[in-house]
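Milestone 3.1: sequence recovery, worked example.
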């Protein structure tokens, strides 16, 4: 089994209250872990270093639940951007 390493140096979350920040990070981590645990995802990923990913516009709803969903959307956009 190969190892996948993703490093996010900085996550700027201006305008989020602490509960929303925590929920967003929880959603982001959970979805990345789920998506990258899939063996098929390993084969589809290309190895590279990318200083910045432009994920486009993602819709966010307010509150912790909306922030958790937003974190999940970010993770899915990251997964799409690193596939060949």
């Amino acid at each position: 089994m190969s190892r996948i390493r993703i490093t996010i140096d900085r996550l700027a979350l201006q305008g989020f209250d602490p509960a929303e920040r925590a929920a967003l990070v929880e959603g982001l981590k959970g979805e990345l872990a789920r998506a990258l645990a899939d063996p098929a995802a390993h084969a589809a990923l290309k190895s590279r270093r990318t200083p910045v990913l432009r994920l486009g516009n993602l819709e966010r709803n307010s509150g912790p639940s909306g922030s958790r969903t937003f974190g999940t959307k970010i993770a899915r956009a990251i997964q799409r951007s690193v596939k060949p």
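Helices lie at 18-37, 39-44, 63-82. The radius of gyration is 13 Å.
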